[in-house]
Amino acid sequence: MRVRGLRRSRAATAPDAPALEEVLGPEGTERRRAAHREVPRYAHGSRVPGWDDAVDLDKEPAVVPDAAVVEVPRELRAEIEAAMARYPDSRSAALPALAAAQRHHGWCSPEAITQAACVMRLTPGYLVSVASFYDMFETEPAGRHSIYVCTNISCSLRGADELHAALLAATGDDADFNIRSFECLGACDIAPMASVDSVYIGPLELDDVEPLLADIRAGRPPLAAKQLLRRPSADAAAADYPRDGA
Length: 246
Ligand code: FES
Hints:
A 4-stranded mixed sheet has the order 2-1-3-4, covered by helices on one side. Helices cover 36% and strands 7% of the residues. It is built from 8 helices and 4 strands; from the N terminus they run H-H-H-H-H-E-H-H-E-E-E-H. Among the domains are: 74-131, Orthogonal Bundle (Arc Repressor Mutant, subunit A); 145-240, Glutaredoxin.
């Protein structure tokens, strides 16, 4: 079918071109209209309903949690304060503070956010707005072992989608695992790869799924032979560096 030159309306260019309805016929035209009807449209434009609701002036203003009331675990407080000390504006420590809170609580729970906000002297809403923007902060309960399978182009071309599906199937309902597909993790040279509790591993094959899960469940380093940090490099001592980055 010659598409170029079709008229979308009688007022369009190419006066000799047939109207779209003539080409599609009654059935095709109805299908096209139905497809258009399925696209959600909001009466007041393309924004999410509620975006222009008036501010609730009766609502209590957000407050910084009371340090005399909120109990913060000592180690978590120390970690957040150490992060705050690194910046001239302590709000710059929001990301490391949230990361510490997530590590401590398993996810950015309301309690975790309140504790971090209490130490930072910010409102919980400030930290929620940061946590909900970044992908690696969990704002819902999540398994304690995170496996992020990169399904971006290089990894996808080398079987990442099958790998992701196999991991999902192998872990099933196991609440200990948080299996997610991810955009490019910046290690395309070991595609297909995954970040397993922040350790980059690849290239992965479907046969690696079971040994990988077995390592994690047993508390062993996951697929040690395939870890990026253990690959040969110009620095012969690189593989022996401590994992904490020191
Ligand atoms: S595409 Fe997978 S790490 Fe870049």
